[in-house]
């Protein structure tokens, strides 16, 4: 039963990451209102919480549930999945830092000023993150089935 609970939590975290990234990508605009900017900041915090949850629950599953750590560490798709997740995490730093820096501009309910360059950079990073998530899901699927290249 505990294994099923951790599997469920793992899925919740994955769907949470996907959901928050899609919301960020859809909500981002060149001229966000104060309300939109606040929502992006809150959404980005949830993204971070879901990512942390995914790591903790995922490694709990590797070491204490499922097929055992020897299965996962011997599988190249596990290594690819973890590597892609690290790249995803590193990429996510840029939008997070930008959203945090908006706080200084948002005093007294003012909307942040977002340059075209900043907008395009954040948009590109979010798009790449979504593509990386698809690659991670593919690796997870191949890994779980024991596929060896």
Task: Describe what this molecule looks like in 3D.
The chain has helices at residues 2-27, 34-64, 69-73, 76-105, 116-144. Helix 1 (2-27) packs antiparallel against helix 5 and helix 4 runs antiparallel to helix 5. The radius of gyration is 18 Å and the shape is elongated. 81% of the residues lie in helices and 0% in strands. The model has no long low-confidence stretch (mean pLDDT 93). It has 149 residues and is mainly α.
Question: How would you sum up this structure in a few lines?
Answer:
The protein has 149 residues and is an all-alpha fold. Helix content is 81%, strand content 0%.
Relevant terms:
elongated, mainly alpha, about 150 residues, Four Helix Bundle (Hemerythrin (Met), subunit A)
Please describe the biggest sheet, giving its number of strands, its sense, and whether it closes into a barrel: none
Question: And the CATH topology?
Answer: Four Helix Bundle (Hemerythrin (Met), subunit A)
Spans of at least 5 consecutive residues whose pLDDT stays below 50 are none
Q: Average the pLDDT over all residues and give the rounded result.
A: 93
- The percent range for strand residues is under 5%
Into which percent range does the helicity of residues fall?
Answer: over 70%
Give the beta-strand count.
0
Top CATH class: Mainly Alpha
First-to-last CA distance: 32 Å
How many independent structural domains? 1
Would you identify the CATH architecture? Up-down Bundle
Compute the CA-based radius of gyration: 18 Å
SSE string, helix = H, strand = E?
A: HHHHH
From the spread of the alpha carbons, the general shape counts as elongated
SS content category? mainly alpha
Number of helices in the DSSP assignment: 5
């Amino acid at each position: 039963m505990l294994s099923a609970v951790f599997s469920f939590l793992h899925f919740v975290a994955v769907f949470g990451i996907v959901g928050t990234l899609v919301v960020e990508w859809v909500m981002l605009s060149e001229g966000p209102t104060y309300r939109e900017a606040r929502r992006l900041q809150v959404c980005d915090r949830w993204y971070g919480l879901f990512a942390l949850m995914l790591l903790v629950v995922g490694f709990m599953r590797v070491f204490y549930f499922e097929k055992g750590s020897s299965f996962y560490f011997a599988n190249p798709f596990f290594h690819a999945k973890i590597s892609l997740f690290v790249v995803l995490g590193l990429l996510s730093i840029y939008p997070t830092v930008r959203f945090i820096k908006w706080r200084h501009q948002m005093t007294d309910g003012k909307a942040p000023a977002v340059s075209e360059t900043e907008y395009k950079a954040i948009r590109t990073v979010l798009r790449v993150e979504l593509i990386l998530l698809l690659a991670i899901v593919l690796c997870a699927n191949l890994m779980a089935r024991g596929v060896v290249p």
